Amino acid sequence: MQGHYMLIFERNSELKIHLDRIRAESRQIGFVPTMGALHAGHISLINESKKRGLFTVCSIFVNPTQFNDKKDLENYPRTPQADIDMLRQSGCDALFMPTTEEVYPKEDVRIFNFGELETVLEGAHRPGHFNGVAKVVSILFDKVHPDVAFFGSKDYQQVMIVKALVKQLNLPIQIVPCPIIREPDGLAMSSRNMRLTKEEREAAKLIPLLLNESKIFFKAQKPISEIKAFIASKLAQKSIYKLEYFEICNSESLQILTDKKEVKQGIALIACFVGNIRLIDNLILD
Ligand code: AMP
After folding, report:
1. Which residues, 6+ apart, have CB-to-CB distance to 136 below 8 Å?
2. Whose CA is nearest to atom 10 of ligand 1?
3. Which domain holds residue 114?
4. CA-189 nearest atom, ligand 1
5. Going residue by residue through the chain (286 aa), what tens digit of pLDDT does each one get?
6. What is the CATH number of the domain that holds 152?
């Protein structure tokens, strides 16, 4: 497949030599960390970096420390050749595909503290997840030394964790949140979507529909407890769904809200199993 010239590095030492050269030319580096099985959502982050004229580095690394479920790690989709083709087409300048030994030459025993942020939503339901995210992001930032790093708002809480991490470690990296890219029927793009059966894929489109309904109710001043009961009852109608959480939060702090008046801007966040696949999504409510 034709495309842009893209360097591929598996070793940290080779990546470093090349990026030092880029920096010596006074070019700035944009970074897009991913776990692969790439789709248009990932590519939108690459595009955002390219648009700003940055030397754009993507990483693909399925990070074991952020999986609290071993089966989920084993089943995580891996499509390296298709990923390389997509990245070439997108104009990405360099791809870093390290091995686990390269990222974790010895066990990383650091424990991060993100306060309240870790106690809600994904933090509450996936123990250790954000600590693993913080480990890998800090290691990758240390290897790439980007000026700017791009993250998708689909993982809204993750963006807040990464911003807090950069602040705690005092890193000179600008974090840019990017919009959620969706399928034509509204389903948020995700690497996990490719593991949905036909029936589950069909059922999954209810998730963005419910987020949209919650926005209409929220704007119409419906009590939050009633919105939550409505969403839960809709998902309880079919056994294919298993709702893990649906919350309406303050979009700046992710504090869970019980009353609309408490907040300038609300956000609805959901995690729901469709069959065996756990999907997350969110929508700003205003
Ligand atoms: P992942 O490979 O799932 O770890 O995702 C890598 C990056 O892509 C993260 O910053 C995600 O938030 C982002 N991302 C994943 N899906 C989407 C999407 N549908 N729209 C925008 N960004 C996304």
Report:
1. 33, 61, 63, 65, 66, 103
2. 151
3. 7-178
4. 19
5. 556 899 999 999 999 999 999 999 999 999 999 999 999 999 999 999 999 999 999 999 999 999 989 999 999 999 999 999 999 999 999 999 999 999 999 999 999 999 999 999 999 999 999 999 999 999 999 999 999 999 999 999 999 999 999 999 999 999 999 999 999 999 999 999 999 999 999 999 999 999 999 999 999 999 999 999 999 999 999 999 999 999 999 999 999 999 877 788 999 999 999 999 999 999 999 8
6. 3.40.50.620
C-alpha–C-alpha distance, residues 10 and 18, integer Å: 12
* Ligand 1 mean position, distance from CA 194 (Å): 14
Probe ligand 1: pick from 39, 45, 58, max atoms within 8 Å of CB? Answer: 45
Catalytic annotation on 42? Answer: yes
Let me know: does 140 contact 33? Beta carbons within 8 Å. yes
The catalytic residue among 42, 125, 129, 145 is 42
Residues facing 33 on adjacent strands: 59
State how many domains the chain has: 2
Length of the chain: 286
- Give pTM, 2 decimals: 0.97
**Residue 285: inside a domain:** no
- Point out the domain boundary residue: 150, 178, 206: 178
Ligand 1 contacts (CB < 6 A) are 34-35, 41-42, 44-45, 151-152, 154-155, 178, 180-181, 188-191
Quote the ligand 1 centre to 152 CA distance (angstroms): 5
Is there a single domain that holds both residue 30 and residue 83? yes
